[in-house]
């Protein structure tokens, strides 16, 4: 979730269809930077509070049920973002907060859950595979939008800034 969602938003912000739908070309450079910063930052804020809430959730619900809850919250957040249209960024902000909460919580609970259920001989490997999944998700999230870009250089450069 975290790898895919973190990488996907960067390339989405650079898509010509996204730029057109939300009127990025009509914004001043300062306003555009502010909007993009907020879209990215509310996700990080959600992840911060998700990680904090994960202790309580994991303690009272257990690790497995907490992961189910965070997966549902992630799906709801993704669904909320789908409602964004005609220049209305509100659903994107709300959805990013929810997906951030889910990712922050799951990122705290998954390694603990793995360490509790895995035999000692393979614990470290399994946590390493979890990290590998995170990075593969980021790779997929970044490259999934490249086919829709008008030029690979344009999208890649916009994603980096």
Give a description of the structure:
The chain has helices spanning 2-14, 16-21, 29-61, 63-81, 90-117, 123-143, 152-160. With 161 residues, the protein is mainly alpha-helical. It has seven helices and no strands. The protein is elongated and about 55 Å long.
Ordered list of secondary-structure elements with their pairings:
Layout: H1 2-14, H2 16-21, H3 29-61, H4 63-81, H5 90-117, H6 123-143, H7 152-160
Helix pairs in contact: 1-3, 1-6, 1-7, 3-4, 3-5, 4-5, 5-6
Compose a concise summary of this entry.
By secondary structure, the protein is mainly α. It has helices at residues 2-14, 16-21, 29-61, 63-81, 90-117, 123-143, 152-160.
End-to-end C-alpha gap? 22 Å
Helix proportion? over 70%
| Average residue-wise pLDDT | 86
Query: Strand fraction band?
Result: under 5%
Characterize the main sheet: none
| Molecular shape | elongated
Total strands: the figure is 0
Rounded to an integer in angstroms, the radius of gyration calculated over CA atoms is 17 Å
Q: What distinguishing features does this structure have?
A:
mainly alpha; disordered C terminus; 7 helices; 161 residues
